[in-house]
Every structure is written in structure tokens, then in C-alpha cells.
Amino acid sequence: MIFLIISCNQQNKESKVKEVKNYDEKGKLIVYSENVYCDLWSKNKNLDVTVIDTFCINQKARAIRDIKNGKLIYFDFHPQELDKMAKILCNYGIETQEQLRRDVKIGGFEPYCYEYEMHREISRKYGAKFIDSIFRVAQKEYILENPNEAYIEDGIDLRGKYLKKK
Questions:
Q1: 23 DSSP assignment
Q2: Cβ 50 vs Cβ 29: under 8 Å
Q3: Which parts of 49-146 fold into alpha helices (H)?
Q4: What is the predicted pLDDT for the residue at 2?
Q5: How would residue 95 be classed by pLDDT, with cut points 50, 70 and 90?
Q6: Burial of residue 65 (number of CB atoms within 10 Å: 0-12, 13-18, 19+)
Q7: Residue 31: helix, strand or coil by DSSP?
Q8: Are the beta carbons of 119 and 125 closer than 8 angstroms?
């Protein structure tokens, strides 16, 4: 048992060393993992490395496979309208998922490759304004169903736009 634990620890150390010992043609360290990048950056804020984002590459490949198999997913962060958008998009064979996003991009790593590929395919297939128009319909329905709830966009309460004055 002790031999297995020592062996696993040694393999973990070797895999980290292998990742760190890869260099590009200019002699810059190649980093394949966001976690490794963060670890290196925490030790050296002036980190100068070459990033190869294998996570993104794999996510993009998975999205392309899913698209070829007829699967489309729209990712959104508008929780109020998401249910309404889901009902409309379902008519087009598009699934929806809520997406909680981070605004920080670490190094050269792209955290939303699958989502971007899906968005690109939806825009290609249905047009650049498709999602925007569906969102506006869902937004209007939400406001009409919730007339007593303020709905502020760009500093303006949109209830005045959609609710008829008596």
C-alpha cells in the first residue's frame, strides 16, 4: 500500500514537472492548464509563458460534435426571462441553460469555448438578431405578467413601454 502511495505521489510530481519543462521554440515555458498558470503566476506576477488552452480545444471539439448531432444549447444569464426564452427556443430545437459567468479571463485561457461555439452556430443558423428578438419577446411577456415589479434597463423602467396606460 505504501508503495502505491509513493508511486502515485511520484507520478503527480513527474506530471507537474513534465508540464513545466515544455518550452516553445523561443524558449518560453508552455502552460496547458489554467490551474498551473495560476500557480506559476502566484509566484511570479510578471509571468511570460506560452499558453495552449487544451480545455478550450476540447470544449470546442465537443461543441462541434454536439452540433453535428443536432444538439444546440443557448446559455444565458437572464434568470427572469430564461424560462420564457426556453419555451420559445424549444420550438426551434434549442435547449437552454443558465450560465453563471466570471468576468476575469486568466492568462490566455478561454473559459466559455463550448458556449461560444453554440452561440456561433445558433447565430449562423438563425441569424445574428435571432436571440435578441427572442429575448425582447420574453422580456415583454415577463413585464406583462409582473406589472407591479419594476423592470429597469439602462436606467429606465420598461413597464412604461409595455404596459398600457388606463
A1: B
A2: yes
A3: 54-68, 79-90, 113-126, 130-145
A4: 52
A5: very high
A6: exposed
A7: strand
A8: no
pLDDT for 69: 97
Take residue 152 and report the three cell numbers written for it: 429597469
Helices (H) and strands (E) in the chain, counts: 7, 6
Contact 14, 7 (CB under 8 A): no
Task: Please answer whether residues 162 and 143 qualify as being in contact, where contact means their C-beta atoms are separated by less than 8 angstroms.
Answer: yes
- CA-closest candidate to residue 125, choices 77, 73, 82: 73
Q: Residue 71 has which C-alpha cell?
A: 444538439
Say what angle helices 54-68 and 113-126 make with each other, to 10 degrees: 40
Measure the CA–CA gap between 96 and 75, rounded to whole angstroms: 6
Rounded-to-integer distance, Cα 42 and Cα 107, Å: 12
Mean pLDDT (the chain, rounded)? 85
State in Å, rounded, how far the first CA of the chain is from the last one: 79
Q: Which of 103, 24, 113, 106 is nearest to 60 (CA)?
A: 113
- In this structure, what C-alpha cell is assigned to residue 79? 434568470
* Residue 95 cell numbers, joined: 435547449
**DSSP H or E segment with residue 69:** none
**CA–CA separation, 101 vs 89, rounded Å?**
21
Coil vs helix vs strand at 35? helix
